[in-house]
Every structure is written in C-alpha cells, then in structure tokens.
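Support request from a user on the community tier.

User writes: "When I paste my structure tokens into the form, the page sometimes reloads and wipes my input. The last time it worked, I copied everything first. Here is what I submitted, just in case something in the input itself triggers the reload:"
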C-alpha cells in the first residue's frame, strides 16, 4: 500500500519535473528567429536580452561573468520563487537563486535603458507590452551565473508560459556580445539577425492629432483595438508622421534641477502647438512648456531632480498625451560599484537634487560596522578633483538603514549637502587617510 502511494506521488510530480528539466536550449541568434519571444511590437523581450547580454562576459570555458549582481537588485532584478516549477530545482538553496527582470510596470525597472522600455510607454493598454522576462540562476561561486533563461507570461495573465521558455546558451550569449562590441548599431543589427518583425512597428511609428474623424486603414500586423491611436480616435491616413524616433529625456543641470530634453518631434505635432510637460512619480504635472517650432532642444527647469520624473508630449489643452518618455532613474542608470575586498558596494544617486549615496552590505557581512568603523564616503562636485578636495563626507556607520526589502543585502543611505551635477562622484575610503580608496562611482552624466 505504501509503495502504491509513493508511485502515485511520483506520477503526480513527474509532469512538473519534465517541464522544468526539458527546457529547450538556444545556441545561436538564428535559433531566436524560430520562436515567439519578443518578436513583434510592442514586445520588449529581444531588447531585454540584448541589454542584459551587454552586461555579461563569457570566457573560453563558457563561464558567465556578469558586471551586475541580480541579488542586489541591479536593473530591477528581483527574486524569482519558481513556484510553478518553470525551472530546475536548485541544488543549494542557500547559495543559489533565480532572479527575474523585465517587468517594466514597477519603479525598480527605471534603470533599464530607454530602448528596452520605449515600446511599453508608446502603447498604454496593450496586453503584449509587458509579457517578456529574463531569468538568471546564480551560482554558489559568486558572482558567476549558472544559467540564463527567457520566458513570458500568457497574454493578459501573470502566469508563465512553459512552452515559450528557453535557456540561452553561453554560445548564444557570446554571439550577442560579438554583435554588441563590433557594431555601433548593435541593437538594430541584433533585432534584424534575430528576426524581429519590423513591420509590426508601422502602426505606432505614427503620431496623430486628436479630435479627427476616425478611420481605419491597413496598419501592419498590430491588433488595432489595442493600439494607442485607436484609443485616441485617431486618423490613420496620409497625414501620419514618424514618432518612434522621438527622444524625450530628463538629465541634470549644474545645480541639481531637472533638465528636459527633446528631439525629432515631427512637424505634425508642432503644427498643433504640442506642449512639453514634466510629471513626477505620482503622475502630477509639474510644468508645461510650448515647443513652438522647435523640434529639438533642452529646457532647464526649477524642479529638483528626483526618481520617476517623466517627460510627455501633450496636446495644447493638456487633455491628450501623444508620446511618453522613460522614467528617470535616481542612480543615473548606473549599477553600484563593488567595495574592493568586501561583500559590499557603493552607489551614487540623487534625491531632491542632492548627491546621495547608498551602501549595499551583504547580510553575511555581520560585523561590517566594525570593519568599516573608520570608513567614510566623500562627495565630489568633479570626479577629477583630488581625494582631499571633497565637498562633504560622512562616515559609513552613520548612514541610515533603509527598509529591509532585499533578501541578500542591507541597504544604508545618506543625503549630502552637495547639489547633484554632471561629473559628481562618490568615493569610499577604508580609513581616515586619503590613499585607501576602495570604490569610486562612475561620474554623473551630463
């Protein structure tokens, strides 16, 4: 009787084991052409794969060496519990883990580059715009990765589709890396080689003036009732103009305020007196600016630089949104830099226009406050300045602990009195002297 019960349990678990153990492996870019994943607008999966591949090095032994740490939350990576048994069981629960990235509908995804998120912001309401995910399996030999996977949700669902789940081989990652390093237009070259359906982008290549008579003509392969233009009762005819190439962005002024930038705004929008607007993370309109006839330019606002700021193109009365830019990332889309010799890292970010720093301390580094007792972080208005020419500083042990939301790391932060500005930098010193620098952040971008 006991044996029959065990056999019954075995056969009940067998389908789950087969799903997780028999994941197809893709070995070349050509293999990507034969699958559904991320192949048509507004899917973002292929862009996501290109982006993450840019942060991976594959050595001659097929070892995957990342420049990012999924456990730290870089680029919006978060712990993936694998409840659906989509992937093989972990051999070491304490030192391995699955981490997913690609959910653009969350503030943790703001660090993803605009070419990954553009289709999401151009197609509000589209059920395909946020389906794709990339998952990595971390290795006991940190910070190496053991495997990279791509997968997707069922359309309109939070459940994952095991039949559209694949493992990305080191050979494929190396091939993508070759494209990235050898082509200036590596994104376009990769999408073309992977068989991305360029025609599916035709419909949302176009911007439309509101309040026009509704007509539908041939609009490529995109589902019409899910398109932005149809929701706005737009005209699809000879008056369309390209909008996919429009650039909207937020950068920093020399004094910690938001600098708005725009480019490639088509004449059809300028003709209807389109407005440039800045919104905060709560969706409030902070300012509006008439572009007149300026298809490109910058504008220095009086709004402090903060996480989640977003530029939009609005109709003259503000009732219609034509195009939405990416959300601003408070860390300037830079991952933290490791503190040499320690399981800890440093990140420069901004809050209310001031230069701030985060310390990521591994939870296994239990006596960090003793090891870093004399350590301090210096803030520099220019990364070329000597170490003793800091604007201000703070000791590491005086940083404030943030909410305990990260599984692997404790996060501590400090808000300095230095206005964030292009070229600003934070440095971590182990002792009170100026010569023992263990970490330097990338200079803040202009």
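"...and here is what came back when it finally went through:"
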């Amino acid at each position: 009787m006991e044996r029959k019960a065990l056999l019954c349990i075995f056969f009940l678990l067998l389908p789950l084991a087969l799903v997780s153990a028999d994941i197809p492996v893709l070995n070349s870019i050509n293999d990507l052409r034969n699958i559904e994943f991320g192949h048509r607008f507004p899917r973002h999966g292929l862009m996501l794969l290109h982006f993450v591949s840019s942060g991976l090095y594959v050595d001659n032994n097929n070892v995957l060496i990342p420049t990012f740490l999924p456990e730290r939350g870089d680029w919006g990576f978060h712990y993936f519990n694998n409840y659906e048994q989509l992937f093989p069981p972990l051999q070491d629960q304490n030192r391995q883990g699955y981490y997913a990235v690609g959910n653009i509908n969350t503030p943790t995804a703001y660090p993803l580059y605009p070419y990954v998120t553009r289709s999401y912001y151009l197609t509000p309401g589209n059920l395909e715009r946020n389906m794709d995910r990339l998952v990595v399996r971390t290795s006991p030999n940190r910070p190496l990765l053991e495997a990279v996977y791509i997968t997707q949700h069922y359309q309109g669902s939070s459940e994952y589709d095991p039949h559209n789940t694949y493992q990305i081989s080191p050979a494929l990652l190396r091939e993508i890396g070759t494209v990235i390093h050898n082509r200036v237009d590596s994104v376009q070259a990769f999408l073309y080689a992977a068989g991305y359906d360029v025609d599916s982008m035709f419909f949302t290549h176009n911007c439309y003036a509101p309040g026009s008579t509704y007509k539908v003509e041939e609009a490529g392969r995109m589902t019409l009732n899910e398109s932005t233009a149809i929701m706005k009762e737009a005209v699809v005819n000879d008056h369309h103009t390209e909008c996919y190439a429009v650039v909207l962005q937020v950068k920093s002024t020399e004094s910690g305020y938001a600098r708005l930038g725009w480019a490639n705004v088509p004449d059809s929008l300028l003709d209807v007196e389109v407005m440039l607007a800045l919104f905060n993370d709560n969706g409030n309109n902070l300012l509006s600016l008439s572009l007149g006839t300026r298809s490109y330019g910058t504008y220095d606002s009086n709004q402090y630089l903060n996480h989640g700021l977003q530029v939009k193109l609005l109709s003259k009365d503000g009732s219609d949104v034509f195009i939405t830019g990416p959300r601003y990332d408070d860390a300037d889309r830079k991952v933290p830099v490791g503190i040499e010799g320690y399981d800890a890292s440093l990140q420069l970010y901004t809050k209310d226009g001031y230069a701030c720093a985060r310390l990521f301390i591994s939870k296994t580094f239990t006596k960090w406050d003793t090891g870093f007792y004399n350590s301090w972080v210096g803030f520099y208005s220019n990364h070329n300045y000597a170490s003793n020419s800091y604007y201000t500083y703070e000791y590491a042990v005086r940083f404030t602990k943030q909410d305990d939301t990260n599984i692997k790391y404790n996060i501590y932060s400090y808000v300095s009195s230095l206005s964030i500005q292009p070229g600003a930098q934070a440095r971590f010193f182990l002792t009170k002297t100026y010569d023992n620098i263990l970490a330097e952040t990338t200079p803040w971008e202009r």
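Agent notes: The reload is a front-end session timeout and is unrelated to the input. The chain is about 15% helix and 30% strand. The chain has four domains: 16-196, 202-231, 245-324, 337-440. Escalated to web team.
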